[in-house]
User: Fold these one by one.
Assistant:
Number 1:
Amino acid sequence: MGPRALLAEIFLRVLHPALLLASLWILLRGHNAPGGGFIGGLLAVAASAAVALTFTAAEARRRLPLPPTPLAALGVLLALLSGLPGVLGGHPFLTHLWFIVPLPVSELPLSTVILFDLGVYLAVWGAVGGFCLSLLAAVEAER
Amino acid sequence: MSLPGANGGRATARHEEMSAARSDAPLAWTAGASALPWALLPASLFGLLVGGLISVPLPWRVSWRWIPALDLHFALYVDGLAAQFLLLITGIGTLVAVYGAGYLAGDRRRWRVFTLLLLFMLAMIGAVSSDHLLLLFVFWELTSVLSFLLVGFDHARESSRKAAQQALLITGTGGLFLLAGIILLAEIGGSYSLRQLIAAAPAIAADARLPAALTLLFIGAFSKSAQFPFHFWLPNAMAAPTPVSAYLHSATLVKLGIYLLARLDAAFSDLPFWEYSLVGVGTLTAVVAAVQTVRERDLKRILAWSTVATLGTLTMLVGLPGHGAALAVAALFFAHALYKAPLFFVAGNLDHGAGTRDIDRLTGMRRHLPWTAVAALLAALSMAGLPLSFGFVAKDAMTLAKVEAGVFALVSHATLFVGSVSVAVAAVAAIHIFWGRDAADRTTHPHEAPLPMLLPPLLLVALAVLFGLRPTLVDPLLGAAAQAIAPSFDPLQVDSSYDAWPVAEASIATLVFGVLIYFGWDRLHALLDRARDLDELGPESWYWRKLKFVHRLAAWLTRRLQHGALPGYLLTLAGAVTLMLLAALLVAGAEAAWPSPAPLPLPVVGCALLIAGGALAAVLVRDHLVLLLVSGLVGYGSALLFLFTGAPDLALTQFAVETVFVVVAATTLRRLRQMPAPLPVAASEARWRPLALLVALAFSLALSALLLLAAGLPFDTQLSDFFAAESLPAAHGRNVVNVIIVDFRALDTLGEIAVVALALVAALPLLRRAGRS
Amino acid sequence: MLVLTPLLVPLATALVCLLLPPAWQQRASLAGALLLPACGLALAGEVVSNGPLTVVAGGWPLPFGIEFAADRLSAALVLVAALMLNVVLLWQAGGSADAAPAAPTLQPLLQGLVAGAGAAFVTADLFNLYVWFELTLICALGLLALRGGLRQLDATLKYFVLNVFGTLLLLAAVALLYAATGQLNFRALGAATAALPAGIALPLLTLLSLAFLIKAAAFPFFAWLPASYHTLPAPLLALFSALLAKIGLYALVRTLGAVFQPAPDLLFAVLGWIAVVSMLSGALGAAYHWDLRRILAFHSISQIGYILLAIALASPAGNAAAILFMLHHSLVKAALILTAALIFHACGHYDLRRVGGLYAGRPGLSLVFLLLALSLIGIPPSSGFWSKFLVVRQTLLQGEYLWAAFALAAGAVTLYSMLKIWLEAFWKPHPDESWRAPANDRLLPAHAALGGLLLLILSFGLLPESWIAYVMAAADSLRGGS
């Protein structure tokens, strides 16, 4: 195992999950601090693109939770569905519901907003990521 | 210029085609019998009508709801004029069906003709019974379309197609004028009902828009009834099978325009504009058509031109004021149907039996087609207006009308000439063809037509003779029709209005001239043939020139607008947008409050310069990689701008997008083994460049001006205040931008992520294909 | 919730299709497509009996949230979109007669297109409208590129560049209007714009109208339409013709006719002349061409001119005429394109010089074409006649004689170009004497789709009362409705 491969291995094992975790963190903190689904999603795309640039587009694709198109579709569908619980409660579409779960130390706010933002995150990851990976795959095929 | 193959040769060629499709006489009988049911509908309608006329006094009215929103009711109104038309439409319709059964026996396509003829008959019935002008227009247009289909029956021949196209283009375009006229007239008179319009005539006459409305109506009616300068389509429409011609051009289609004019006569007969237009155009049409008649050698086209002449005469009579004219219109309508339909049938029998309609080759037919000869003779009698025929009665009424109205001498001479040509045509149809010397070297063997083709003409001429001998039989009918045209007309005075002397005088004059024209036919024909060059000035050549002009205009315009070069399209688009924007700014500029420039914070100016520099460089550089990097400047500049103006989320997103884009695109470009050559500037694109630069500058100028104007207004912060205030308490979020994205305006976000996702879906196949190739 | 279904039903269907394996896509798409007309009908019924239906997403107070509002106009256009979607899917079921390739992206893009159009018809927020314009644009591009040939790619590029210009213009207009008024909700925006100094309202509304005119394919902005439409498979071409330019026209009716009432007179005067030139140049383009699809595409521009003319009259009666004309044109143009596809199926060509003999060979098809052509020309009693009649009558009544004259002249040229199709494709003998009309195998779905459309068109023509009454009420409720 050469140093280059070692570096790559480290990258895969450490950096990629770290980037993804960071993107998730950005997504979750977005409601109260700079961040949110769009930026988080883009960071995830950056993580995927890094894998593709280091290894191959196919490798990056394997590391996506779903193939790009269903991933993006799932994201949009999630965002759409997050608007429905409110409707069941007799509110207009996209009325977000909040459940504040009291915890010993603090409290845990759960809401459909998180679902919506997660949808944005997945949609951006799937769509932009899919676009980048396809482009890079096309370039690889060209070589 | 004339239609290709419109003359001479057509008659024989057509016959060969027909005889190929037609079988022998015995088969014709059975086929004829099987087609007879088609006559049942018109016959029963005719019977109903006659029964109704005897038992129920006119007028008949009936009205159904149809389109209340447009105040359009299915309102029918049958008075004397309509009744006369209905009798002719159904009566002659029956005979045409019988005749067609014989004429088209064995032709596989006869069902199509019969269906179309029946539909046409129904449309005609509707047109003459409508009280609502829009309803009339509906049926009017239907008759145009159905006659188009009938004229183009022989559609494998280009000349048939052209003739049908010409007929519909002229009557259809005329219909558009008519529609405009109807709308205007209804607007002036406050109603679409003919009854109510006639009742409101005095008020209408005072309106300044009336001449315009009437002109539009005239154009519609004249095009339908083949008046000058639209007359030429009718002879060309002789491409139709003979039963169709007999029906359309003797009793129905072409009379519809005159019918409408006669209808409106009750309202406008006192207007000088009405009288002069109709008398002028009618007389001109009659004279032009009479001259054209003499130029023809094809019997059917001779009859067609003489029909146009009669239509002109009818228009003239409608225009004449007075009771006599009303009666003359009614009488001539009737008489013309009774002699012209049989004459068309005769032409069909000759075509069928002798294989030609060329009058040079048709002589001495009396021995071969004896019954047809009888029909021709009696019809000719009526056409020439000789005593013992109904034509005589009509001529009598016409002469009296002219005396009563005191027409100009010019009109009087013109009608004398037209009448003489009628006499000559009658003589050609009856004497020349049937009693002339039989050609010895005949190669074909002419034979008499079968019974279904003989009964209809014989029946009609018998009626003409009957009514000629006993005019009182039709007096009530004519009187009622005349009363519909001139409401003050007393139907009881019909009988007393016959006056022998002026008629005899006029008859003798037309007879003498007519005989002269008959004997001089060949010489006249040759003479007029030499004047062929004058056709170039005529309306028909104008029609062909216009058609060519439309072709050329369409080609020129379309090639310029749709040239296929994207840079040109974009230039047109941006140029037009810019021009209109600048115009709007100029118009508004005087009133606009231009803001005084306020100093901008330094970082903002820096960002603006970055963005502008990037954009400018992107236009100038040729290298792909450099292009990518400088366009990145625009993105980073924007991100910085967001940062300095207090939107860190947007800035972050923009940075991320820009970075991912630049990195991936740069990698793509770098990895491509051979870097693509600098963008080649296509020659066509280079041509656009100077203009494109100008448009781009003007466009940015316009947009900047607009931005300045908008920025000069005090900004209404209602929305942003609400978002800032409610973000935490109502939406549980401290990051206002994120709350806007996921909550306040989440629907926008949903749309945008759908766009992003579907953009991938849209692009994937292309990317995959790029990967494969 | 009902008012959101024009967006949510097709959008959810598109997403579900993307998550399903290709074998299941068509079924899922069909289910969604069948649900949509039901929603449209329910929406129309609700709107007619109880007046405009509105909802604000998230339940925020106005003007802060995004409002969806459906009135009669919205409901009618949603129904057209729903109908056309089903027609396309039915046509695709046969898989012949110039059908679109059964790519896995076809169904999602179709549904996405309809979702964008449906949402555009019901949104009452200017920026949100822009979002739905984008969605339709993206899906239209995907559908254009579906066949992937060089001609398609060239068409896609032209469509993309020219339409993106229009979309960016719209974005600029939205931004500037927001800068000037601070509002995006239609009602608030209308009120705020009315309070603007006259010198600013005119250029701002000009910019907005220009963006919509590009989308509506009016002269001189129409190049994208005839440059791209003829490369589409027939059912998609029918959908595009019925729906896409209509979104631009709808937006014009909605904004100039309702939101920004009373808009500056000058705008309408210019619009009238744009309409006149569109009518004439479209009709002349149709007279010039020989490809059936190109002829029909240019006719669309001409017909769009009529609709613009009606909008330019700036009166409730004019708006009613515009709406009726939009409905008529969507149905008839789509049906004519499908008829052209059947001509193509029978003869193997769209080029009129290479087809013929159909009057004898395909009498049924001849009758269908004849009825549709008469409607397009405006021969009564047909949907086209009533539409044209309303436009011309209102133009005359408002004293715009010159415009009316041009409208009638364009009618004559339209007559000429439709006659050309009839003479060449139906009456002229087929140029190849050995040609025989092929068997109509696998055409049942296509015939059913066209037949259904034709029945609707005929009932429109023969019994137009309910249609006319509906559009008149729609025009009357435009100002108070949203």
Number 2:
Amino acid sequence: MFPKGLKNGFSRRTFLKSTAATAFSAGLPSMALAAGETVKIGFLAPLTGATAAWGAPGLSGCEIWAEKVNAAGGIKIGDSSHNIEFVAYDNEYDPAKARTGATKLIREDGVKFVMMLGGDTWPGVQPVADRTGMLFSTLLPSDLSPDTETLLAPTEVHPIYLVTGVQWLAENKPELKTAVMCAQDDALGLPSVATYLAAFEAAGIEMQDEPLLFDPATTDFAPIVTRLLSTSPDIVCLDTCYSDYVHPICEQLFQQGYKGQIISATADFYDQMIAKTSKEFMEGFIFQFPDFDDPALNADNINFKDANGFYAEYNKRFPGQWGAVSWEYAAIMELWKDAAEKAGSVEPDSVLAAMKEGGKGKHAFGDADWWGAEMFGINNALVGDWPVVVIEDGKAVIKGFKSIPDWYDQHGDLLIKHMSAYDQMWNQRS
Amino acid sequence: MFELLAQTGLNAAYAASYISLVAVGLVLIFGVMGVINFAHGELFMAGSYVVVALYADRMVPFFVAVVAGLIFVGILGLIMERALFRPLRDNPLGGLVASIGFLLILQALAVLGFGVRMEYVPPLTQDVIVFADKISIPVARLYVIIAAVVMLSALWYFLKRTRFGWALRASAQDPEAAALQGISVTQTAMIAMFIGAGFAGLAGALTAPLVSVNPHMGHTIIVTAFIVIIVGGVGSLEGAVVASVVYAFVHTFVTTFYDGVLADITGLSLMLIVLIVKPTGLFGSADRA
């Protein structure tokens, strides 16, 4: 009764999408890549506005990466080599502008791949992705859903990697038994809260209070810190607070006399935090984003090529600007380049197939699995090891790599429980 | 519990100080010129960036940078008065729209000049005054409280005890009658704009080492300032100060004892209740000023 393709899981919806994508593609400029032609990659992220810190530094990192790749001969597709060029579009973290940008990058600039921050801008872009079949990446896997098979989260599996920091903390400082947490009440903060709650529960660390949520527009953190410290916790967890929050919160913790453990997703510009507090106060601060001059990133299993050299060049060009996203978009490009060279093509469907071949991929921090069916409804998140970073003597040091899949195998039910409680499972999000 | 209450009270006193400096400036501009200055949050931001440029980047002493912030932002206010508000004196809606345009220009200039990321401002001092072992107030925050008390007292004295102050109040109450008495409406508008903008710049400059300085930091403070002037009574300086204190204490206590999101809802609810019970605000009258 049904065509064979439909019987074997090729749904009517997929059929319609594919047909639409094919029809749309027919109207696009020629897909063939001429010998020596530059390959254009779209960079669709906030470059201005309040969220620019999650986009602009990543573009800087990409340009350094492209210069290096181009100087080494470019990307090799079949028998010809091609330079890579980034075409940036500032979406100002606005879904409508992101949609316009995606259309422009694909139709006018002829890009072969589009990197995004994602988050609030993804719903604007999703129809374009579905219509064109273009390959997109996001830094936020909460954007993933079975609806869009060409959206990947190949680097930052936020917030699942946060479990590794708590796991390391519990193993290395077992005397710390109580915690409190604060977070901004937004799309980045809430799934992180659920993840930290799961991680603390798995580690046997008791939450002394409900997570304290604050408005993202908050500028004065003294009342929040007063509340956090009112129960004399062993651990203060700063969730995935942005730098604009982490810095004043730490300063307040210092000024209100806190002397315990701090754990956070990020500690961008931690040297400034040390200057505002003290080296002793920041000693032992745990977070998840290393400086790439760390010797641990020279290990054979690390797939980000010449991490130390990349860090040195970045700091030379943008002194003091290294942050969590400085390397992430470049790491995605490493993955894309390998897949394109393996596929012998830069076309999105070929690259996607090569990238996901065998269900394995080369994540920046080591070989990893394409994962996520339970959490995101689709195995489009590349998950493996993630570093745990600790500030020691004023410098971020990788203390080890922890396996996210291993943690999930043991405690996945806790994560699903807390994610569900905060309406953060993929099938709960509107 | 006593320590928690006392600490929260000190936190609220600090919040009330910088909010009142901003709100009083906004009220002064509205009272004298009849213009809702949407760029007031960006004037606060500009004050912070003066401290970044002078104190953080060029090692100018902090209090010199703060005074420079007050004067620089006051001059920005004069430019706004001359270029935007004076030509639109009979068109309050035009003034409002012009101020939104100026807001965007200031934000763009900050991005061009300093970039999109938050700026590092070295701490003025790490000294903390501790009471009863657990109640603390950083000296840098104490400076903000002292500066607010001194400047607001000085403004009160200026308005109530000097000829320029009387002229300002007369212009606010009835511009035509004031003009008939020989008071220059243009001159009083310039004075109001310099003081109003300068106070926002002063608040931004004083708090620069205590907050994250970035081009979009004006959003939060302008929303708070609008709530405060509506609660206090649009056009009432006393109302702005009292409402700043009320708002700061309510917001800070709700944040500490419940959470920050609920505190925002409570702040807005406070405004709604005042609008329903006394639409002119706590100290407002049916007439402007």
Number 3:
Amino acid sequence: MNVLITPGPLSGTVAVPPSKSQMHRAIIAASLAKGKSVIHNAAVNDDIAATIAAMEKIGVKIINNGTQLIVNGVSRVVVSDDNFIDCNESGSTLRFILPILALSREKVIYSGKPSLMKRPMSTYDEICRQHGLVYQQNDKSIMVSGTLTPGVYQVPGSVSSQFISGLLFALPLLKGDSEIHIGEPLESKGYVDMTVDILRRFGIAIEEKNGVYFVRGNQTYVAANLTIEGDHSQMAFFAAAGVLSGDVLCKNISVASLQPDRRILDVIAAMNGTIVTREDGILFRKSDLRGCVVDVSQCPDIGPIIAVLGAGAKGITTIENAARLKYKESNRLQTTTDILRAFGVAVEMTETSLVIHGRPTFEGGLIDPAPDHRIVMSAAIAATRAVKPVLIKHAEAVNKSYPNFFNDYKSVGGIYTAMEE
Amino acid sequence: MRIGIVGLGLMGGSIAAALKPRHRVTAYDIDPAAVSLALSKGFIDAGAKTPEELFGAADVIYLCLYPRAVDAFFERHVDQLRPGTICVDIAGVKAAIVDGIRAHLRKDIQFVFSHPVAGREKVGVAFADPAIFKGANYIVVPTPENTPEALETVRSLAREMGFGNVTDLSADEHDAIIAYTSQLTHVISLSIVDSDDGKFDTGRFIGDSYRDLTRIAMINAPLWSELFLENKENLLARIDAFRSSLDAFEAMLKNDDLDGLNQKMTEAKRRRSLLEKGK
């Protein structure tokens, strides 16, 4: 689908969709807890659907009530259906469930879209080799057989935190105690904190000291009810629209959140953006933004939209420690640079950073982003500042994380038409 | 977006005022007073002193000129337009200008022919009012050179101005239907006023029917003379059809044909009531 945007400011109110990161974790934890758990403020997108389908393979029953998921969990991980798991394009699904299904004593085969299979997985390859599991990967699938055992797991801190989270889900169910040793300073620690928080709410205790996670064995997940927070990484798009173009109120959002992407609030404040915390949400006022230096090592997913903010800010914005942006649905260092340049913004790209020269208005015309949800949404928000009509290709990519994105875009005064290819 | 207006009259001013809330609007007019007035009324963000200055400040440019001036203006300035510019005309006739403009087109420029079927019986930017577009009809006349994106941009802007129906028509279809819905109605309105023999002080005896039928006789004469002449064949055909209908009335009156009159009125009423069904 192509979307033709008649650029103009956005203003109004957006109900921010629930946090995808919390959703994955809550579904998995509820699935491992025998009995009924209810997850409120839920929304199922392509990635969440992949996690649900994977949990159903171990006999979990999940009912989707629209805004509620009712999860009937299992106490033992037994692959009750076939042993093929389609992770579609969801890195969270693949990395979270691989250690969990390694509790099943079955051979399990994981498949997914080519872009998923290109994302780094060597951490698990390494772990499997050290702990006596068989790990085989080609460009279409990953095969794992053998059983996870208690012990000491070494994980480098520079890789995706999803590997650590995956182990944290699985290790408490083993007969013995385990430790996870993080080799270097842990990037994206906030996501591991979120995992530990969810585990705690489902009765699992994890302790962390000096880069070591201590996981007692023989623990039991306890069914629980949980309300999912609004997603700060999705809020970031309309927050950016608010400070770039007009006042936008984001509802369903918790200021005191463990989501690492809540850092978008700090970034906007550092750029001189006006943020008003209200009872019904957070109001982002149109502001004269100033460029600044942003370290995105802990919040790579909001890197592209921070780059758009920088493009609309006065002066230069530098996005640092951004190497992990290269290993997302697209190489986001490159694809962010590509869309900003298409909007006429000057960008210098290195292996780990972006230097963005802000300008008051953007060009428009054809924007051909990588088919990557966050890049497409960033382009649509950048369009608010464009002087010409903007045609964005691959707009359907938003379905991955925010299927309602363009409806919300319209509800705050965005004007667009879906065009045939 | 950056919108340009060439010609700040009633229509140019109304389009500017309708789009200004979401867009940056720059306007050019040969009369600097029109630009000053539009600025003071808040219809535009900026005035351009020359067409060239306007071309640098706008990406979608509405040419709000009389039909014969549209082609002349475009031909004179086409080389100065920046690549990617979308030009939009708003003239009330189409076949007479489409071919002339297409002959001067550049490959890197889009020209979208359109007709906002709206207005009021006043002249000049002083009377501009975006409310005249609310729920009105907007016609787009696509050409083979138009990209879907340029056409949709113009349609989208029309909806943004408040137009209710946005419809595509060919130039010939446009002129044929407009000869009836717009031009013939003006001819009749003018004829009603013109046929007053002046024996009475008419103003003391008019009611809503006279007022409704003659509002549009308060006409912008130079503009409408051009519109009529540029669509002469269609308008003549419509006048002919209208004359037949008048003749029929005349014959029924002469023949004291009560049933015939009744029937004709009932039929016309039925057809009129179907026109805006669902509105």
